[in-house]
Amino acid sequence: MPTVTLNTNHFNLDVGGFAGFFGGEEAVSAMETVHLYRARRWTGWFNSPGSYSVGKHYGQLANSRFWDGMFPGPNVEPTVYIGMDGKSGPMYFASQSGTFLKQTGHLAYLLMQKCKDQRAVIVEGRKTRANKVTILEMPDIKFDAATETSLNIHARDGFHKHVALFPIATSVATCILCAWGDDWYCFSLILLGILINGISCFVIGSASIVLQSVASSKNAPPGDGMLMDGNHVIVVLGKEKNVLAITQGKFQLEYEPWVRRRMRKRRTRGIVGDGIHNVHHWFGKKDAESGSEMQSDEDAEINNEYAAIGFCSLLLVIQFLTQLLLIPQGKLFGQVMFLTSFAVSWAYNLFLSSMDKEYLQEERLVQALNLTDDHMKTYKLGTRTAAAVFACLALQPDCEHGEWENRGFKPQEILRQFIPNETHVWAVWRDQVLEQMRSDKSSLQSFDLQACGNRIAAFNDVDKNLLSDLLSDARTAYQQYLILQVRRRSLIGSISSSVKAEVW
């Protein structure tokens, strides 16, 4: 029987063919966490796969004619491109200021997702389709003293930096082993991957996250209102400037000047090779017939070029081409070492890409706004009518009902945001709810069917039974609101007593 031998003298793995494409999606997704984790930008010193995908993806951030030709695609802000902005938030209806936003922004979206995941207090009562109402009492936000509209967001401190030691150590070890095996091709390519990926992580992750709000008037009314998203409503209570941070604020990535490199960009349209336009300009002559002067550069729009990010993207593409050409020149042992560094780095990228980046943003937002469980409380009510009454009561200003009109508070409009029905039954129900809100009595007699009087004289049995169910829902919401008021007073009393004890 003949002996079978394996001759590896002329055997090559030829891993350069997939060096730039393997693990590309994971590498792009992992790079999106570079701003959310503290010290993440310092932990990119390993030979990462997917350099071509990362380079083509982030190269679109660079904004100039040269970079647009190198990396064609839309020029959007890094915050939107990385996924920290761009989501549409729920509708916002202010109860006193009259503000109505059909669509809010990314921060309101994150806050809504956070409240949806919060454990709710179950309110006993009639059940059809459950609705959740979150009472959110906004604390006072300490904006930056210089701008009064911006707030620095601190990145999350996790154990990712300890996990990063594995791909870093593997890449360095395989690089040393290639030098020990006298394979300088693979040694150079692994070292090139370490340096380019480390530099790219440092440059792309060099921005700080800032919560950018809008300025509000010091004499503005309270910003109390509702964020409405289907069967979940957030009742936001607080000053106008604090509520604006949620409804109109956004995350922003603030890069250093050496990264963004601002330039003045004038909107010009043309094709290279069309010839020389305005020949007189080249010879320093003025067109006497036109009588108009050239537009000054001060009128041009100022854009961020992000040339440093474009340069890093170009290096990543060069890395891919270099690995594609030179990996076949290496020895089998060096190619195995190169593949080993790729495999460990891919596993680390997979670990980072598995992180819920939306949850990380929610966590950063809640921490920046100092929102705790004491500020957010979610209630689950069995019907939408009960949720409407409960939210309306929570938005009720702390004043006599005679001052509601001066405050801009219109409870009937709040109820219509939940239930726009204009039938006779719903009209009577709204009147009874408003009558109870204007009354100082806690007996809730307005929610009895007999209290409706002659307004239901023409109702048949079906209408009366429906109205009875609706009034029962209103009673359930009102009773829960009274419990909430008692707890709030006891909490305020305990806080004031503790303050007095500290003073004494």
The total count of strands amounts to 12
Give the integer mean of the pLDDT values. Answer: 83
Strand-pairing-aware structural class: alpha+beta
Which term fits the overall shape? elongated
What does this protein look like?
By secondary structure, the protein is of the alpha+beta class. It contains 19 helices and twelve strands. The strands form three sheets. A seven-stranded mixed beta sheet has the order 2-1-7-8-4-12-3, sandwiched between helices. Strands 5-6-9 form a three-stranded antiparallel beta sheet, with helices on one face.
List keywords for this structure.
about 500 residues, alpha+beta, seven-stranded mixed sheet, three-stranded antiparallel sheet, 19 helices, about 45% helix
Provide a quick synopsis of the model.
This protein is α+β, with helices and mostly antiparallel strands. The chain is built from 19 helices and twelve strands. It is elongated and about 100 Å long.
Fold blueprint:
Blueprint: H1 24-31, H2 51-58, H3 65-70, H4 78-82, E1 91-94, E2 100-101, H5 106-116, E3 120-122, E4 131-137, E5 150-153, H6 160-163, H7 165-180, H8 184-204, E6 208-212, E7 225-229, E8 232-237, H9 240-247, E9 250-254, H10 257-260, E10 262-265, H11 279-282, E11 301-304, H12 307-326, H13 332-353, H14 357-368, E12 376-381, H15 384-394, H16 404-407, H17 411-418, H18 424-438, H19 461-503
Parallel strand pairs: 3-12, 4-8
Antiparallel strand pairs: 1-2, 1-7, 4-12, 5-6, 6-9, 7-8, 10-11
Helix pairs in contact: 1-2, 1-13, 2-12, 5-14, 7-8, 7-13, 8-12, 8-13, 15-17, 15-19, 18-19
